[in-house]
Specification:
CATH topology: Stationary-phase Survival Protein Sure Homolog, Chain: A
Shape: globular
Structural class: alpha/beta
Largest sheet: 9 strands, mixed
CATH architecture: 3-Layer(aba) Sandwich
Number of domains: 1
Radius of gyration: 19 Å
Number of helices: 6
Length: 252
Amino acid sequence: MEILITNDDGIYAEGISVLASALKKAGNVTVVAPDTQRSAVGHAITIADPLRVVPAKRNGKFFGYAASGTPADCVKLGIKSIMKKRPDLVVSGINLGGNLGYNVLYSGTVSGATEGALLGIPSLAVSLDTFTKPDFTAAAAFSLKLAGMVKKRSLPPGTLLNINIPNIAASRIKGVRITNQSRTSFNDWFDKRTDPHGNTYYWMTGDFKPSDADQASDLNAIRAGYISVTPIQFDLTDYKFIPELERWKLTL
């Protein structure tokens, strides 16, 4: 099994190292990831600048390829230029911080997996729901197990799996729930500041105040101590609204 791994936290993040170590038990692993932090870049790709790729080492040993682009760039590069064989699976993660609700639209982690799905390869996005004191044990073990299941089964074309794991000991995780994307988002605002030269600048900040009454949502699964697995797709068409829009009888 040929596996391509990327992330948006950067190639030197702990999560991608743990993920690569786990997935080596399932097949040949190739890591192509951003050379630095690329969180919240969404599905951006680089078209106006060259992409530079250099070998990256961890603990003195070759680990993978560090690219100057986004997670989507890395997946494209991995599949089309770096890997000798087309991957059987693309896995993006393990991200530090959950990718729940509308945040999947901003997530570089999810977009790395989305690019794999766009290119016709079964893909997973894996996130740990914390920014402090991460315990990647359960996330790594579940990623390995799910990789084996995806190999035996198949995902529909254009569908990827968005996985979120609560940051608790594996023994405390209650199980796995198949979920839908919740309708919650980050509540953000901008701090207006002045630099030492008197110039105004803005720094985005905010908080995440989860609120979702839908018990089948990814958010409520995580809050209840379950692993959340959400099948998502990149067709954003609102099919239910098409008949109503047709009744508008739009003309030039």
